[in-house]
Amino acid sequence: MEIHYCDKWSNIKKKPWNIIDENTAKTLHENRQSYTAIIGDLEQPNYLVNITDKWVSVSFLDKFLRKYLNYDFIVKEGNRIFLRTIMYWEYEEDIQLKSMIFGYQENGHIAMEQRDSITGELEERVTKDDVSRNWDVLSKFGDYLYLCKEER
């Protein structure tokens, strides 16, 4: 799968801001500075991976370049990352129907919010569970697909 790099992705314009070359992106990665990896076709990407020194986010895009799933990882000691937030959006044509947010803490506390965008109905839940599967390692530069697993 193709990988392109940029400073950041514009969610409003649905295109990259300031395309950068692979060597520049690699230097940013090594220096723990922010950049975005665009995975897939530049005009119709599948995933956006935003890397910073404090967090990593992965956006899954539909054919209309809307986010339908987003993972936010917090960078911990070394190259360890912890999946802190999952966001999911459901659409029908150009209307957002539902959204769900899951917030995870390292101690196992989990908060969930589900919102029906049509009715305005909001459901919230809090629980505690094993979150060991939320841990991963930030791999080497250019290796992003392992972060782009929809089933986590």
Give a verbal description of the structure.
By secondary structure, the chain is mainly β. The protein has one helix at residues 22-30; strands spanning 3-10, 15-20, 35-40, 45-51, 55-61, 67-75, 80-92, 95-104, 109-116, 122-128, 135-137. The longest helix has 9 residues, at 22-30.
Order of helices and strands: EEHEEEEEEEEE
Give the overall average pLDDT: 95
The DSSP helix count reads 1
Please give the radius of gyration in angstroms: 16 Å
Q: What proportion of the residues form beta strands (DSSP E)? A: over 45%
Secondary structure: elements and pairs:
Layout lengths: L2 E8 L4 E6 L1 H9 L4 E6 L4 E7 L3 E7 L5 E9 L4 E13 L2 E10 L4 E8 L5 E7 L6 E3 L15
Antiparallel strand pairs: 1-2, 1-3, 3-4, 4-5, 5-6, 6-7, 7-8, 7-11, 8-9, 9-10
List keywords for this structure.
11-stranded antiparallel sheet; 1 helix; about 5% helix; about 150 residues; flat; mainly beta; single chain
Short account of what is shown:
The protein is mostly beta strands and 152 residues long. 6% of the residues lie in helices and 55% in strands.
